[in-house]
Design brief:
- With 136 residues, this protein is mainly beta.
- A nine-stranded antiparallel β-sheet has the order 1-2-3-4-5-6-7-8-9, with no helix packed on it.
- Helices cover 15% and strands 45% of the residues.
- The chain folds into two domains: 12-64; 77-136, Inhibitor of vertebrate lysozyme, Ivy.
Amino acid sequence: MMVAAMITSLTFAQKLQEKGVPAPVKTAFQKQYPNAKETKWEKENDNYEADFEIEETDYSVLMDASGNILETELEISIDALPANVKNYVSKNYSGKKIKEAAKITDAKGTVTYEAEIKGKDLLFDSNGNFIKEETE
């Protein structure tokens, strides 16, 4: 399954039925991702997160109540992570393997990477420099 947490902050996410998602959010989502399959919705504070698949690739998108995309997350292969990420993990988490990886793009186009290792999400900037660790 997709890396569970979006990179906002440690927030409580509440699962939602699709009928609980505001119309502007659903409309914007369907327009942007018409081929999305197996969509699952959560509410994070005042925002809405959709986890879904397109052609067997996991995605997640965080939208505000007006349907504006705040952040997108795309599952990537571990090999697609910048070399600095893999070097950091091998040096600082000896013996641990990266289970999942994701490329995250915010509304301004800023790219960050996420590497999941045994109950932790490690966040890195676009060059693979460590930013922070979050516990799942």
